Please model this.
Amino acid sequence: MIFSKEYVGYLARHTVKHLIAAKMIKTEKLPQVEERIYNGLLEELQLEDRINEEVRIILEAYQDEMRRTGASYPEMFKKVKQELARKYKAVL
Model:
């Protein structure tokens, strides 16, 4: 993940404060709202990590074939990652 969990917590708190100030939400339970925003942000940010791990597993299965054909690992990583991002409808 590109951000620390502490920074994600800061973003969640700041987002909730902004939404309240803009009168987009109203809440009596500030900590619970901040926690839900934090969990949502964390899940989205960890999606890329999960996709990267899945790409590594896929490419590991095809490593012999890639060696035989002379395929570039970085290029194949990028292509497979783009396909998985499309499959999961993720914006990376």
Observations:
- The helical segments are 5-21, 30-61, 63-69, 73-87.
- The chain has one domain: 5-87.
- The mean pLDDT is 94.
- The radius of gyration is 19 Å.
